[in-house]
Amino acid sequence: MMRLMHWTGLLPVLLISFVPMQASAQSLSLSLDTAFDQALNRNEITQQFEALRMEGISMEQIASRLPNPEFSFDQEEVSGGGSETTERVYALSQTLDISGERTFRYKAATAAKRAKQSEVALRAHDIRNEVRARYFEALYAQRQARTLDEWLERIASLTSDLRTQVERGEASRYDLQRLEQTRLGFSAMQSRAQATVTRQRARLLALVGLPVSSNVTLTEDLVPPPAPTLEALHEAAERHPELNMLSALSDEARFSARAERRAALPDLNVSLGVKTIRGTGANEDGYVLGLSVPLPLFDRRNGQTGIAAARAADRNAEYHLIRIKHLAEIEADRAAYVQLREHLLSQISAAETSAESLVTAAEAGYAGAEQSVLELADAYEVALNTLMDLLSMTFEARTAHSELVTHLHGDHPNDQ
Q1: CA distance linking residue 59 with residue 111, whole number of Å
Q2: Is 23 helix (H, G, I), strand (E, B) or coil?
Q3: Which residues contact 128 (CB under 8 A, 6 or more apart)?
Q4: What's the CA angle centered on 5, arms 166 and 190, to 5 degrees?
Q5: pLDDT digits over 79-125, tens only?
Q6: Which end of the chain lies in a sparser environment, N or C, as judged by fewer CB atoms within 10 Å?
Q7: Is the pTM of this model over 0.70?
Q8: How far is CA 336 from CA 229, 331, 394, 416, in A?
Q9: At what angle do helices 173-208 and 32-40 cross, to 10 degrees?
């Protein structure tokens, strides 16, 4: 009985899977940087960021202003002995900060403004991290679907040729049915992969503010780049937006605590005005000067001072805890990523060669009646599983890289 000879040459699937796809005329090329820009330039995001900045600016403006002066008017009517006298006092008073409290309130507000600016940077950093995760989830699903498409097309062509052989009585109907079962299994995997592509792409497009029906081509490589040096990671981590925000909040709490200690000293209230006396036989004018100082007999602001000091200690401890956590995680995440990427790079070539050699030998053996259709189907399944496992390992390495760069500040060149 004549066996089908199905020769496909070199295996193109894995090579296609690991290089950026070219955009068609009808599609939008979406790089990771473009996705970042799209997400961060959405109206809702820019409005939120602007609101946070304005909140910080307003806090600083409030702290920089002097308290408003107070105008007072008093009138007293005095009558008796057949005479009437009217006394009027017009005065303007101003509270003076002689303790230096206002200076530290302003420094605290300036630190709070820096905290708001760092919060904007932190939210932008979190958005980039989420976009990066969604981008490579969609890219991974796209690579899986493309690999399955190639293999489904390959086995479908083989099945079609074998069906022709069966109709001419040149091949076994069992061989056709067995290969058809393998094709159906590949088809089911391909359908699930396409559903995953649709879901992951929709999640990415929704995040970057594009219509979910947009035809986009993801242009990045799934294979991650080399890890930054440990020194570069440590240096970048010191400027991480979360640490910047916590440092600013720590400064704000520290200045607030100093302001509370100064507030235990009473402010001086100075008033200046004129006094007029009008009445029977009286027509006099004069000046009024007044000073008032609250006496800290009952409330010496001990409670407020204690709360502010405790808050400052808490913020300072939180900053150092998060900093230690970042630096410790950097070393662990980098070591794991370097090991995973090196293993991946060593496996790519071996997987390509292994899959190609296995399928080529199985096709040649089946064509020469040396192997059964079961062995041919098994070769197809094993080769596909090898390539899919390699894609899974690549995505795992890319995920590890994404976790590593979360320790970097947003404008670091390796934050990709």
Answers
A1: 10
A2: coil
A3: 36, 39, 40, 410, 415
A4: 80
A5: 876 778 889 999 999 999 988 999 999 999 999 999 999 999 999 99
A6: N
A7: yes
A8: 14, 9, 14, 18
A9: 40
